[in-house]
Amino acid sequence: MFLNKIEYFTVKDIMSREFDFIDENATINEAILAMSKINAGDIFIKGEGGIPKGIVTLNDVVNIIRDDSCENIKEKFLLKNISDIPKDLIVIDMAESAIKARNIMKERSIGRLPVINEGKMVGVVRTIDILNKVYSKIDETKEAYEFVFDNLHEAVCVVDKEGIISLWGGRAEKLYGVSKEEAVGKKLKELFPKALLLDVLKTGKAAENAIHSPRENTYINISAMPLIVKEKLIGAVSTDRDISEVMNLSMELELTKEKLDYLQTEVSRMNEDKFSFGNILGKSLIMKNTVDIAAQVAATTSSVLISGESGTGKEVFARAIHQASGRSGPFVAINCSAIPDNLFESEMFGYEGGAFTGALSKGKVGKVELANKGTIFLDEIGDMPLYMQAKLLRVLQERQVSRVGGEKAVDVDIRVISATHRNLKDMVRTGAFREDLYYRLNVVNLKLPSLNERSEDIPMFVKYFMEDFCSENHINLPNIRPEVYQKLMGYEWPGNIRELKNTVEHLVVFSKNGEVTMESLPPHLLSRVKSIVKSESYDLQERVKSIEIETIHKAMELSGGNKLKAAKVLNIPRSTLYYKIKFYDLVEYM
């Protein structure tokens, strides 16, 4: 491992303080006895000022014994003086590096090196001491490092240049569920094939604040850097911080923010459009019956399928049902005909970060999850792809939704209101719509009448749309000629209320001198009106009704809207005028 390096230490770190001196006149036998007392293989010859002048080693003794010039061993031990042993002595300062001591001993082929400090011998560096002391220091250092690393908030991992784990902090054990025994000595790639440290080893470039998720609902912030010594890559180190709590809280806040933004938009729309049964326009009998049915079903959790022609106000009814239901969650509308097939699932159910190309890194909440505790409105449900019909049915059955790319299912409590202008029964017969989904959505069927079926409500809509448009655009409210009302009520309105609203705006824009006349009508509607005029009705009651309505309009215009004056012009009691205004539902005069 890269930690096992002598250059990290000084001579003081590795020297031994076990040494002794002997007089230069001592014999070999006395030197051996002195060595045995300190259990050493050497003894230093005392010099002046605390600096040794020589050294006697066991190797020297062995060499003397092997010398044939002496007649017997006894003479060699008793008579041989240590001063007769020539020995060059090299010393080193205590503050020098351990590597320098090792190099001197290697170059001079010596096994001992006296250590000097302030002119005195304070220790000795022996070959065996270098090994023992270095490994001892490394063990102490590693223990200190490991204690620090185990108590850091970050998980620390160190690998050598081969990618083998040499240090695995205690926090890493808790974070990844891998013990030191399982990690140290193993290749990082075997445990974590996509570890950021592997990229750092490969590129030699540091990485900071990278976020990844090793396990579900676990998020890690990693910083990693290469370890370079003398311009050589010797390994890499990473610090990993568990930010799961922060990320999960962030996602909860993001979801809350999305819901809040959506609710603010919805509240703004509801305040603007005043979605409630009390504000649904229409006094016709068919409309009153439809509102009564919708109000009755609103208090339940039953699924509602709203059918009707385009422009009959299906979303208006859906919002009114939601508002009357008392559900605490939001009203979330999805136009099934406006979503591309490849985005349907992610739009409906949401997705996890990085689930597909182009996905937001933080992921996105789906419309179904957003509608929790509230109502989801599936407009133009007949345009939903078959594969999504199956997925939607599963969500409605299990009351759970899973995001794209995610494994965790989220419980949802939603009320489903769907709408279509298609004949879903025919689609079921042809296989274009799932039968099981149809019956789940069609618990209550609410059919909205076309505007052609409730023509008596047209004056009320005209007045409402005109006032709204004039107020928004700061335009004075113009008067409408009676014949215009008559012609509007005679039109078939294939676009229903939506078309009527656009037509009213056209009438206001092209009014002249504060009055809407026949010339203000859109060309396509005017041509249709002309064809209607050609086919005159000879029904006496209808002719009388038409004449009375037109005469009342003219009288009201002449009197400036004063009913008492108008009644005098018409030569009828004022009470009769009130009755006829109510009878003919002339809302502009009520």
TrEMBL record:
SMART domains: AAA (SM00382), CBS (SM00116), PAS (SM00091). PROSITE patterns: CBS, PAS, SIGMA54_INTERACT_1, SIGMA54_INTERACT_2, SIGMA54_INTERACT_3, SIGMA54_INTERACT_4. It comes from the Bacteria. Residues 15-75, 85-140 form the CBS domain. Keywords: ATP-binding, CBS domain, Coiled coil, DNA-binding, Nucleotide-binding, Transcription, Transcription regulation. Residues 280-509 form the Sigma-54 factor interaction domain. The keyword Mitochondrion does not apply. Residues 141-192 form the PAS domain. Pfam families: AAA_lid_14, CBS, HTH_8, PAS, Sigma54_activat. InterPro entries: AAA+_ATPase, AAA_lid_NorR, CBS_dom, CBS_dom_sf, Homeodomain-like_sf, HTH_Fis, P-loop_NTPase, PAS. This is PAS domain S-box-containing protein.
